[in-house]
Amino acid sequence: MRMGLGLHEYGGWCNPNAVRRVARRLKTAVCALLGCVLAMFALTGCGNVNGSDQADAWNEAADPWSYSFGVHVFTEGDGRVLRPVWRVIDVAEHQRNINWQKVKQSEVDAAILRIGYGHGNEDKYFKNNLAQVRVNRIPHGLYLYSYAYDTDFAREEANFVLQTLRRYSITDKSVPIFYDMEHLDDWGGHTMPTRPIQFEQIAKVFFGVLEDAGYTNLGIYTYAHNMATRLDSDWLHGHANWIASYSDTLEYDFAGCPDLHAWQYTSTARVPGVTGDVDVSVFDPRFFDVE
């Protein structure tokens, strides 16, 4: 049973049949009052979606995003509806120079910026990306790509994050910060862990350092297969709240993670202002302190 992401009024998954009933009642009322006939009425109600404009903006044949009653709605491939949700991109130096004003105008709700990788390796475009999301008032979070092979390295990574936060005067303790735990081969003479308990210990140290500094909005980013293998522990499942699963339908159930969820559903979206492909995710707005 899926929980968290795309909660309707944050109380449960949006029921397509219930939405259809609401939609029919709204359609009848509007027609009676205005004498109009609605040409289109989707599961998500009477949103202000312009299909051709959406396709042009996102360069996707079938855009799953729409608006309904002023909030973003994501319709999965099987017709299930996630709402209210935010359209969020994540970027790193691979995207090079980004026109953040165009990103803002493209109906992106927020961005997750790579702060760096390992420890002491700040993303080359982090400084500029941070300055521009601030100027354009784009809600944002941060992520660190981990190279940790043991708890000492994880502690160094967490301290590097804290140093970078101080350097750029990021004082909001509720800023979303994600620990990017992906599969890495052995590197630099170091042997990477192979057992979930080892990764659990690494993540606990990283989280502990940030929590001791007062940062509370923490999570793990990874992909579904990694959660089912290398990261398959109860504690890691409970903290992995941003999952990559490239499909038009969310199949990952976030078992053991009862709070906020985010789903990265593609790595090949096109967004005005960003050159080339970019990751796009469906986020619960409460990650960004939005009720």
Brief overview:
With 291 residues, this protein is of the alpha/beta class.
Structure description:
30% of the residues lie in helices and 22% in strands. It is an alpha/beta fold. It has a domain at 86-288: Alpha-Beta Barrel (TIM Barrel). α5 (151-167) packs parallel to α6. It is globular and about 50 Å long. It starts with 15 loop residues before the first helix and ends in an 8-residue tail after the last strand.
In CATH, the architecture of the domain at 86-288 is Alpha-Beta Barrel
CATH fold annotation of the domain at 86-288: TIM Barrel
The helix content, as a percent range, equals 25-40%
Low-confidence stretches: 1-61
- Shape summary: globular
Break the fold down into its secondary structure elements and pairings:
Elements: H1 16-34, H2 51-58, E1 65-68, E2 71-75, E3 81-91, H3 100-105, E4 110-117, E5 121-122, H4 126-135, E6 140-145, H5 151-167, E7 177-180, H6 196-212, E8 218-223, H7 224-228, H8 234-239, E9 242-244, E10 262-269, E11 278-283
Parallel strand pairs: 3-4, 4-6, 6-7, 7-8, 8-9, 9-10
Antiparallel strand pairs: 1-2, 2-3, 3-11, 4-5, 10-11
Helix pairs in contact: 5-6
